[in-house]
Design goal:
Elements: H1 2-24, E1 30-34, H2 41-56, E2 63-67, H3 74-82, E3 89-95, H4 100-104, E4 117-132, H5 140-145, E5 150-155, H6 160-172, E6 176-182, H7 185-193, E7 199-203, H8 204-212, E8 216-221, E9 246-253, H9 259-273, H10 276-285, H11 294-310
Parallel strand pairs: 1-2, 1-3, 5-6, 5-7
Antiparallel strand pairs: 3-9, 4-7, 4-8, 4-9
């Protein structure tokens, strides 16, 4: 009888422990992993939302932004993936930047995005085509009409920028030559401005900075409705699927987070992104925030997997 009572007590404890943990959550500081160096776009989002998120959690704890740069974000992503599923480690993810190595089958990859617990989304940035301000090419059709390969600048062959250029030019029927090896998006956009290439395909927010300085013109955007006056959109270019080329900023925790913990984090994050203080930051910084919940984040991930799996031949060699 005593043995039966002990067994029942153990079972009850196993059932009630996660419930109690969810009721008390959070009881300590939460680490918010940023898998890139300080100062970039993803770092900026996390540091802006962290103090606002603290105010929307049910208990008063600190959100601790933690930069873990290495391997194109893979090290930070792996740390979130391997974290204890208790809600005290979450991270921001560059999609498709962290998705491409998984589709490509990199042998050293230590995370599985399909198993993560998705919590929310800061939104997505579309891609577009830009040329130097003095360029004779006024439209995407001008590039298509050239009887020689168009020179595009991009980062290395394993990068999403390189893959995006391959995919977009293939879909648009543009003959291409890719001048690659630049370190990041600012570098390969600056490269086309100084004359290393004819055109560049990159995230719109990056290119818009150079439009404002008068050094670049955006002649096409891969959006269903162009956000750039005078620039063709994906539908006008005859390729609606180009709108799938985007950079998403998604937030996730490790696999198997207890549902109530995940719900608390997701609802608190959504409330923080919709807070007037976040809207003020967005307006003053010029950085867009498009709040998305857990279902939205998961939908973005699934859509990106489906799109990039169709174009896997352009994702570069596996590591």
């Amino acid at each position: 009888m005593n043995k039966l009572l002990a067994a029942l007590t153990t079972c009850v404890g196993m059932v009630t422990a996660p419930v109690a943990m969810a009721a008390d959550f959070p009881a300590k500081n939460i680490q918010f992993v940023i898998p890139v160096s300080p100062g970039g776009g993803f770092d900026t989002y996390v540091r802006a939302v962290a103090p606002i998120l603290e105010r929307h959690l049910p208990q008063s704890v600190n959100i601790v932004p933690t930069n873990i740069p290495a391997a194109g974000g893979a090290r930070g992503a792996a740390q979130v993936y391997r974290a204890k599923p208790d809600g005290y480690t979450i991270g921001i993810f560059n999609i498709p930047g962290m998705l491409v190595p998984q589709i490509r089958g990199d042998s050293d990859l230590q995370y599985d995005l399909k198993k993560m617990t998705w919590l929310g989304s800061f939104g997505q940035d579309g891609y577009g085509v830009g040329v130097p301000t003095a360029s004779p090419y006024k439209t995407v059709a001008d590039l298509k009409a050239l009887d020689r390969p168009v020179k595009f600048t991009a980062s290395g062959p394993s990068s999403t920028a390189y893959s995006a250029t391959m995919i977009a030019t293939d879909m648009l029927g543009i003959k291409r030559e890719i001048i690659s090896g630049y370190k990041g998006s600012n570098d390969y956009v600056l490269a086309v401005i100084r004359g290393d290439g004819d055109a560049v395909i990159g995230p719109l927010p990056v290119m818009e900075k150079f439009v404002e300085s008068g050094e670049l013109r955006i002649i096409g955007t891969f959006e269903e409705k162009s956000s750039v006056p005078g620039a063709q959109n994906a539908i006008e270019m005859g390729q609606p699927d180009l709108s799938k080329l985007s950079v998403g900023r998604l937030v996730a925790g490790p696999p198997d987070l207890p549902p109530e913990v995940a719900k608390t984090l997701s609802e608190s994050l959504m409330a923080a992104m919709q807070d007037p203080a976040m809207a003020t930051w967005s307006r003053e910084s010029g950085i867009a925030v498009e709040p998305g919940d857990a279902a939205s984040a998961k939908g973005i991930l699934e859509g990106q997997f489906n799109f990039y799996e169709r174009y896997s031949k352009y994702l570069g060699p596996a590591n």
